[in-house]
Amino acid sequence: MNLSLLDDTTFKGQLQQEWLQWRQQERKYLDIVTWWVNYVKRKICYMFINEGKERVRTEVMNENFYNTCVYDVLQDLIQHREKAARLNHLKAKIVRLHNKRLQTITIDTHEPTMFQGESPTLFHLLQMRKQRESRIIANVLDENGAPQETVRGILRTFIDYLKHKYGPIQIEENCVDQMLNAGFRTVAEPWRDLLDRPITLEELKTVVHRGAGNKAPGNDGIGLAFFFKVNWDIIKNNMLALFNQMYNNSKIRDQQKHGLVVCIPKKTVPTQPADYRPITLLNTIKFWLASS
Question: What are residue 279's phi and psi, to 5 degrees?
Fold first, then answer.
């Protein structure tokens, strides 16, 4: 999901209007959690996908139009100075079109040498390509030292390693009993009431605005930036009802509990699964609920 689309005022306004219409569909679902999971999330993804396709189509049409204009100018029987002026004018339009496209490509690279408003250069493009290539695991050594270069072999190697590392361990039952007896068996009455209290709007707002908007999203693709850039006054009541139903009624779908495991290299040239640090990208709503 290209969240940079939210920087466009027109698209942001369309999304806000769509949200008001989506809210009318809530009564057709069993609860607000079902409304969010089965309806709103799909609508959000479809809207971003369709907008991205439309913009790519528009860019291709504009580029073809400028190329046709260049051909027409070259074929036109006019003075050389006027022809050069027209070609320079068209060149500026084509460069501006390409720079706008590159700006969306390098929007998440956070390159410190790129000043605000500066057009991406070949250096930034190479840096972006280098960063993307560094995230790809092309080969890895399995537990027997055999190289794995296929997608299935690499996945199997990492799965076996993570299962062995984070699998169940042998423990003694009396040790578990001692740990259980060391703490409080019951929660004090004041604490119990505090835990059962519904989430307030102020608590939810604090959690939402505490995280950084450029955090990597979970498997649903909806990151924190979506809630930052969309008008909070429009979605806050729906989000509060959603969180309280998940928190008080334990209505959390299984797909909301799933995470996306990403392996971050710990070395410059990693060769085996132990050279990577696995992190789990949680669903944004599930992450907020754990932080509330």
Answer: -125, 150
